[in-house]
Amino acid sequence: MYKKIAAWQRPGYLLWLTLLLVGCAGVDIEDYADSQPRLDIADYFAGETRAWGMVQDFRGEVQRRFTVDIDGSYDGQTLVLDEHFVFDDGETDRRIWTFERVDDNRWRGSANDVEGSVDAEQRGHAFNMRYPLDIEVGGREITFQMDDWMYLQPDERLINRTAMRKFGMTLGEITIVFERVAD
Asked: For the whole model, what pTM was predicted?
């Protein structure tokens, strides 16, 4: 007779489980510690910044496009970003972020539409923060977990990619390109 082998004893199952766990590990901001040019969000966002962005669904289809004008001020400890959004359908929105510097690489932030405080970190050319955000979808509010990454480019543009997750699955992405406004 053949002995029945439990699923967890099969080599293929263990390989699949290992790949699943490795795939969930994500990127560590420490991986960017030595990268250039170095991003400090206080230096980058002090003054006026303009950005262009889009929201895509899980299939990659663009759902919305927008521009955002940001007025930033920094007093040596606190960074305030006053963001004014204009969407392609004419809708407008405003978000005010306040970040307190914890040390050279870490920030603690809050925003008028984000519940609780947000821990953020910058290393090398990268910045990352994760936070819950309520977004209206189809007439109802859904809380997404936002995984927000910014990358400073050599030409001084800043690229932002945000994964919008629910139940651990990425259901949407936001891409934004920032450019400082010349004085």
From this structure: 0.83
